[in-house]
Amino acid sequence: MARCSSCNKFVSFDESExxxxxxxxxxxxxxTAEVRIVNACAECGEELTEANxxxxxDHADEVAKHREEMAGRKPLSEAERLLEPxxxxxxxxxxxxxxxxxxxxxxxxxxxxxxRYNPPKVQDYEQGGKEKVRHLMAEVTKRxxxxxxxxxxxxxxxxDGRKDEKKIEAEIxxxxxxxxxxxxxxxxxxxxxYAPDPSxxxxxxxxxxxxxxxxxxxxxxxxxxxYGAFVDYTVTCSCGGEWKVEGSLEVEEQASxxxxxx
Length: 262
Known about the structure:
Order of helices and strands: EEEEEEHHEEEEEEHEEEEE
Low-confidence stretches: 107-138, 145-162, 179-186
Radius of gyration: 28 Å
Distance between the termini: 13 Å
Helix content: 10-25%
Number of helices: 3
Structural class: mainly beta
Oligomer: single chain
Number of strands: 17
């Protein structure tokens, strides 16, 4: 237990999920990670104590064995690895042989979402008193013809709801007027896909799960409490084979050594 300044009393801990930062693997298979564990107030959620811990593991033997087994594989050129061609940048007047666009001007695809807070939200002002303010949020997404990508704009109102709402709706109307009808054909921009190169062995790591741990040692006044975490991960290789290494990191800190945040 610890004293919470917000609740102004001693409270039990809420052991929040561990924060895993900078989980990395180098070319030799050495895994490192930074793990932050936090004990928060079980009643209000305020963070009370924390520990920033480092962990490491080594998979050099597994990596060396995998590279030895894959030695001698012939490198593949980009053309040999191509699975599905992608579109070049679309230029008006030039047809695209990949997606079938005829080269004519692309219609713009506009999507508009407007959200109104109803009933009006009550806003507290420093001067005292309350005032009802109508909040509105609109998001417009418009197709970019040159790359078949999208660009977005977002407006939100804060105080003068009526004035901002009129301004937003005017901008939305202008965007809609500029756009072509949604029924017009819009080609799908294709991105090239490549198969892995069996001669390249770049390692990648992914966190698969994490969980908090706690334990106690001793009895009575001599009891010591430890807080920690397990982090499970998987290391894979860019060569495209089925090789992988699964591992786990463990960190732990005695409760009395954790840093107080209050």
